[in-house]
Amino acid sequence: MIIGIDANEANSSNRVGIGRFALELLRQFYLLRKEKSFRNIKFYLYLKEQPGSDLPEASNGWQYLVFGPKLFWTQLALPWQLYSQKVPLDVFFSTSHYGPRFSPVATVVSVMDLSFLYFPETFLKRDLWQLKNWTNYSVKKAAKVITISQASKADIMKAYGIRNEKIEVIYPGIDADLFNDRQETAEKTRLRLKYGLDSDYLLYIGTLQPRKNLKKLFKALELTVKTKKDLKLVITGKKGWLYQDLFEKREAKKLKGKLIFTGFVPDSDLPSLYRQAKALVLPSLYEGFGIPAVEAMACGIPVAVSDISSLPEIVGGAALLFDPYDAAQISQAINSACYNEKVRQRLIASGKKRAAFFSWQKSGWRLLDTLIKTAYA
């Protein structure tokens, strides 16, 4: 069997969300192909650029094909390659929700969430047009759609009129060797110096964009620091759409000196950043999954999240829930997660158990099984 994969999402720098999902699944495929039951499977990985050092090395049964033109790659270059190559595929998998415009074999596409339909005002017009149109044809033409939560599955079924059995939910995992509650004094000191962490802090991790609801979080922080004056908010994530006015809040009188923007943080720094935080808060208005919540629970800190979208499903009762539109509720959750010791210990214990449920090995096996079944359908 030969499985073709659009690996472009995994072949990028500063990966978040779908990029991390894609890379981890490719790594699992690379390991799984060595098992006896999968040794007859070969993988062709299609790219616009040469594979980066993070991708598994090319080897027997693991081949990279790099070609262009880059413009409209999934519309033109990829279909041409699939139809013209001498060795035909058995199934094609796209790590993004853009499948090939035309394909000689069954395709499987990944759709993390439909934020572009729920919050269109947060996207550039050009990007929004592409997201709407290319996702629409990709999902409807696909033999199977992969998504990352039951909440996202329900959204996809509603938006595109797709039957239940066409969509497979495969949860992302976490690296348990990286994200755990082991404290290291030297690492703690290094991180505090690097990011200027001079007091207790609440942690937010995610792209800076409107649907992440940071303005409401800032309002909640204003309420919290009236009594907890030493608490700061560390905001970790790369700049997204319409982020500029968030930085102005740093100089606002009520929050002056209370906000620390770290920018994108490498994976090597993340575990210690989690472990030193009083708690993680995710006030998002919409999430396909919310992997920082799982990583934080694995690192042994309390978690508080919005009570909408996929987040209640993912935390599974191991976190505090709040109405993301209510700053007072968010502030109350922050106070409980950071300063109520009885609540903290309960959340830490239940969070570790919940985090253990998510495994990249499990995710990779389920996805590979889905691709094999789709090829033989």
Helical percentage:
40-55%
Oligomeric state of the chains present here:
single chain
Derived from helix and strand composition plus strand pairing, the structural class reads alpha/beta
Distance between the termini: 14 Å
Shape: globular
Low-pLDDT runs: none
CATH superfamily (homologous) name of the largest domain = Glycogen Phosphorylase B
**Overall structural domain count:** 2
Radius of gyration: 21 Å
**Continuous helix count:** 14
Average pLDDT metric: 91
Can you tell me the CATH architecture of the largest domain?
A: 3-Layer(aba) Sandwich
Strand order of the largest sheet: 3-2-1-4-5-6-7
Give the percentage of residues in beta strands. Answer: 15-25%
N-to-C series of helices and strands: EHEEHEEHHEHEHEHEHEHEHEHEHHH
Largest sheet: 7 strands, parallel
CATH hierarchy class name of the largest domain: Alpha Beta
